[in-house]
Amino acid sequence: PLPAHPARAGDPRDLRFRAFHKGVPVGEHTVAFRTDGERLTVTTHIDIVIKVLFFTAFRFKHDAEEIWDSGRLVSVTSTTDDDGTLLRVTGAAAGDGFRILGADGPFLAAAHLMTTNTLWNSRLVRESKMIDVQYGNEVGLVAKLLGEEQVATPHGTVSAARYQIITPHYAGSLFYDSAGRWVKGLIEKRGEILEYALAS
Description:
Blueprint: E1 15-21, E2 24-36, E3 39-52, E4 55-69, E5 72-82, E6 85-94, E7 97-102, E8 105-110, E9 114-115, E10 129-132, E11 137-140, E12 142-153, E13 156-166, E14 171-177, E15 182-189, E16 192-198
Parallel strand pairs: 9-10
Antiparallel strand pairs: 1-2, 1-16, 2-3, 3-4, 4-5, 5-6, 6-7, 7-8, 10-11, 12-13, 13-14, 14-15, 15-16
């Protein structure tokens, strides 16, 4: 299981995953962090293309910037190309909530939720709702601990807690090491399974 207090949001390390589909490299998922005191800027970049018999079966591109202050989300901007469907989301903390504007119009989410991009923070598996930074609303999350597994990383093999997750837009498994660092992913989207292998 994860530590009671995973690595503080203030001191995470950048993450770069290579995405594989049936053993073939199909793209990347990167997360970059910039800290300034209690303020944390998180930049997420996802670019995945799955081709089947020379045809593009699935394309997903997502870029987002989230700003967190003392563990609370204070702003987000994102653009997504989900198989040709273009989505744009903006949001900002407002009083006791988080006001977000996306494809479904304006939405006021609860103030202290994490987002659909916050896979890098192991605290996510204890949550039951998230702010959807692709469509601009609030979505449910179910997470269940499946056990410990050995995961190969660029820094050697580590023991990781594997959590099964289910959300409206994706499902699969997330793996976190003993420090709460995200080290592997098996993401199922539209019936296709992507394996995320830590590259750095």
